[in-house]
Automatic annotation (TrEMBL):
<feature type="domain" description="Amine oxidase">
    <location>
        <begin position="216"/>
        <end position="458"/>
    </location>
</feature>
<keyword id="KW-0732">Signal</keyword>
<dbReference type="Pfam" id="PF01593">
    <property type="entry name" value="Amino_oxidase"/>
</dbReference>
<dbReference type="InterPro" id="IPR002937">
    <property type="entry name" value="Amino_oxidase"/>
</dbReference>
<protein>
    <submittedName>
        <fullName>Similar to SMOX: Spermine oxidase (Homo sapiens)</fullName>
    </submittedName>
</protein>
<dbReference type="GO" id="GO:0046592">
    <property type="term" value="F:polyamine oxidase activity"/>
</dbReference>
<dbReference type="InterPro" id="IPR050281">
    <property type="entry name" value="Flavin_monoamine_oxidase"/>
</dbReference>
<feature type="domain" description="Amine oxidase">
    <location>
        <begin position="37"/>
        <end position="123"/>
    </location>
</feature>
<feature type="signal peptide">
    <location>
        <begin position="1"/>
        <end position="21"/>
    </location>
</feature>
<dbReference type="InterPro" id="IPR036188">
    <property type="entry name" value="FAD/NAD-bd_sf"/>
</dbReference>
Amino acid sequence: MPKLILFLFVITTTINNIVLAEPVHDTRVIIVGSGAAGIAAASKLLQNGFNDVKIIEAENRIGGRLWAVKIGQWVHGEEDNVSFELAWPLGLLEHFNYSHVFTTRFFNSSGEQLLPEVLSDVTYFYFNLTENSDVNDIAKAESYGDFIIEKMEEYFKRLPEVTDDMKKSILYLFNLVQGSSDGSDDWTKLSPKMPRDYPKKYPNPAEELPVLNNTILNSKVVKINYDSSDTPVEITTEEGKKYLADHIIVTPSLGVLKADYEKLFNPPLPDKKINAIQNLEMGHVAKIYLYYEDPWWHDEIFVKFILWSDEERKQMEADPAKRWLLGYYTAVEVEHKPKVLCLWMTGPYVTEMEQVSEEEFNNKTLHFVNQFFGKSYNLTQPSIIKRSMWNTNDNFRGTYSYRSITSDLKNAQNKDLAEPIMKNDKPVVLFAGEATDEHFSTVHGAIHSGWREADRLIKLYKI
């Protein structure tokens, strides 16, 4: 787990005294979006002699879907993770301590702990199921969720102490857990053919350069006109400003493309790209951080899973004021942040949660914590509660992409989304972002996609 960090500081700061390359040409490049993909693309272009590179960003900050707050943030994974490799040399991270033993407990809505040893074994089985299964057997299922359900039902037969109602609660829980990993609202929508790990490693993680001076904030692109075959691409922003470029790299999220592609591009995008935009999926995940001056869990390092009963779920589904709480599925103590509790939420409930007023959100979240943990712990009150708000922000419209069974049926490919639009044998509109990469849904996928498109232009102009 790393120290508090806005990760993109790493790729917007000069590293190891690297010097900007001498300009080799006056090619104009505009990058839409200053997330991981946009900054990675700009950094590599500047390093390789492109002296006219601008990033146009709709938000009032850089970072895209990476945004640190003062009470916690971390990088997921260390091995073969370009995010980790960029930040580690600067002393901004700490190694995850695998010697720590996490306490895994299950709580129902009455605040009772349920079968800790048995349910810990169930959890171990679930998290290792993919690794211990043949990829071809997984691919034969109608969906990834159907594969998991079938295997879990077989496993439950060995556990007579797990009641039928508990089985439903466990499957509901693991559905939400899977959603936090893949971004899906329901695991029965997930493609059984999508990769579950990302072994590829990208070289030269420390060769990125500063781009802040070339970034225009608070400027939303509303039109990309690439109609003419002999003039530059014209970019129009919401305030009416126009920019000309020889090449544009489009990096907004898949959620933004889904909502805006028809009005954003002139002429319309190719059918293959539209198919990818329409049928790749954008998921919904949220993190809620609670900061306690006096933590009620003390020195315990834990993962606490939530088991909603089938009956209670039906009651809450019928109550719009409470329904969003069903998205909560776990509480995790953040390592090296001993005063921070992280609640995870997934599924369609995330958007509903974001639409609740701050006061109502805080009150119901505290009630939720008390309901599930109040019997087992002497609870204290948090002084800060922060929630992510990606899904209702028009500049993001979700957290990260995933492949669904519809993606497979419609043959929607990430590589089709990545394919540039060519004019006179030159790529004039290029696409980057995690959804365009084989490592979709990850930060390192976003970074690689930005490097990929920068390399495309570097190769084009290589003397």
